[in-house]
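Give me structure tokens for this 247-residue protein.
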Amino acid sequence: MKKKVFVVGDVHGQYDMFIKLLTHWKEEEEQLILLGDLGDRGENPKACFGLARDLVENKGAVCLKGNHEDMLLDFLNSPQHSAALYDMNGGMVTVQSFLDIKEGQYDAVELSESVKSQEPWLKPFIESLPLKYEWEDYVFTHAGVNLTLKDWTDTSDRDYVWIREGFFDQPNDTDKTFVFGHTVTAMLHEERSNTDIWLSGDGKIGLDGGAVYGGTLHGVVFDKDGIVEQYKVSNTGYAFSQFFGGN
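Here you go.
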């Protein structure tokens, strides 16, 4: 077991930012952990999924399942029922990226079958992604855990990838530090334009800097005692929308 971990926040298809952030990763010293949401909305989701797969299979990285992976899997399994929700959450950007097609009117079932045919590795890869990763006194998840439960380990599979309220707004009375993405840190800070990492003060650390919205992609190094280094890549190029106005 390596003595440090390098944790990457929500990438959302921002391949250039992803690559730039990884230049800070010290492979020999740090276990790489990706918090999920590899695609949707960003400039090149296909490349982000491909890179994550390579990092997992050849570099021993841990890639957690995010809610956007969850929606993509639903789209691949039952497009007739899930395409509308996936599209509303930027998923068609990912589908177009994999199939190299332009925006337009397409049949959801045909799109799903085409992705599975052209990228046969994708569905098994998503299905293999863990919901959490524990290291020392840390628990890494995409969205968080249910802190309203008597025992957080009873958190449902859905909550690990989707929870917001019931986690960040609850006291952490456990002996664990929870590191998560999913909820853009600007929504957790009092100053809504602040895309820095979020520290709750009681063992909850948010790393989704809203990279795809013109915010920040975070990479944070932890050892067993806390944060060792913080790296960030600011979005100076493609943004899905100007969520933070002016960036």
